Amino acid sequence: MTRSDFDVVVIGGGVGALTAALFAAQHGLRTVVATDMILGGQVLDVEEIINYPGMPTPISGVDLCANIEAQALAAGATFNYERATSIVHEGGRFRVGSDSAELTARSVIVGTGSTPASLRIPGEEEYAGRGVSHCASCDAGFFRGETVAVIGSGDSAADGALVAAKSAAEVVIVAREGKLHAAASTQARLQGASRIRIMNAHEPVEIVGQNNAVTALRLRDASAGNTFDLPVSGVFIYVGLQPNTELLAPLVDVTSTGHVVTTADMETTIPGLFAIGDIRAGFAGYVVNAASDGAVAAVAALQRTREEARLHV
């Protein structure tokens, strides 16, 4: 196993983690990013980010992450393209393990992102990858000219519907609540999309299929109380996210929903261990917030490194 020593180990490959690596490296910290080969996390499903400051035109999540990765590399950050499997805290330092490396550092910044939440209804697991998906950008092209359902009421569901509408003949947004909660600008785009219609206050109860393919989404009308089948070939699910805090939960304080408790500097209950992005409690949810978290954590790690250096003078 390769062993290397750094000032900061950043865990994750999303916007927050990459921004943390960029800022840490720019400030002269020896920085390494431990991440999967594919960068981006949930933002990979976003084809057009339209509210990132300074971007005159929409940018895809893939391109945004690639740009920040290039900036971090140019600033001097290195990348270990393996998923981190452990964090050990001993004697004021950290050891981050992966399949073939052990990375040690004064500070660790964790931005491991989230996993799409499940509906937990019959047919969801059975037809996963055979009509059921959490990624319209990845899979909408398989349903060209067909009808698909998008389940959810927030920005992710709205964005997914707009992506799916580029390929599908019709996209039905199924909102379990009485109305959508997406940003007003996104809802305006939905209203201008002729291939999209919205069904509010309907509860999915089963995904129906035949011959290893989805054929319908069974719905319960919350107002009328009746159940009926909506014929669809695909179902895209956007009903929230579960924080990927497996590495941190045994070490630090977390909320009842599994989100990590941090200070304003993104520091957890262990000094030098930071949590950023949608794994932390109170995260606002936008891509720009993830970038901000990463920058804040990197500056806090820099201050920690400087303080330790002064103590050893």
Write the layout of secondary structure elements.
Elements: E1 2-11, H1 15-26, E2 31-34, H2 61-75, E3 78-80, E4 86-90, E5 93-97, E6 101-110, E7 114-116, E8 132-133, H3 136-139, E9 147-151, H4 155-164, E10 170-175, H5 184-191, E11 196-200, E12 202-210, E13 213-221, E14 227-231, E15 234-237, E16 241-243, E17 273-275, H6 287-311
Parallel strand pairs: 1-2, 1-6, 2-3, 6-17, 8-15, 9-10, 9-15, 10-11
Antiparallel strand pairs: 4-5, 5-6, 7-16, 12-13, 13-14
Helix pairs in contact: 1-2, 1-6, 4-5
Folded structure, characterized:
It contains six helices and 17 strands. It has 313 residues and is of the alpha/beta class. The strands form four sheets. Strands 1, 2, 3, 4, 5, 6 and 17 form a seven-stranded mixed β-sheet that branches. Helix 2 links the parallel strand 2 and strand 3. The longest helix is centred in the last third of the chain and has 25 residues. It is elongated. 45% of the residues are buried. GO terms for molecular function: oxidoreductase activity, acting on a sulfur group of donors, NAD(P) as acceptor. Belongs to the class-II pyridine nucleotide-disulfide oxidoreductase family. This is Thioredoxin reductase. Pfam families: Pyr_redox_2.
**What's the alpha carbon Rg, rounded to whole Å?**
21 Å
Structural class: alpha/beta
Helix-strand sequence: EHEHEEEEEEHEHEHEEEEEEEH
Q: What average pLDDT do the residues reach?
A: 93
Number of helices: 6
Oligomer: single chain
Beta-strand residue fraction = 25-35%
Low-confidence stretches: none
General form: elongated
Largest sheet geometry: 7 strands, mixed
Number of β-strand runs: 17
Cα(first) to Cα(last) distance is 33 Å
Question: Which percent bin holds the helix content?
Answer: 10-25%
Protein name: Thioredoxin reductase
Organism: Chelatococcus reniformis
GO molecular function, one term: oxidoreductase activity, acting on a sulfur group of donors, NAD(P) as acceptor
Keywords: Disulfide bond, FAD, Flavoprotein, Oxidoreductase, Redox-active center
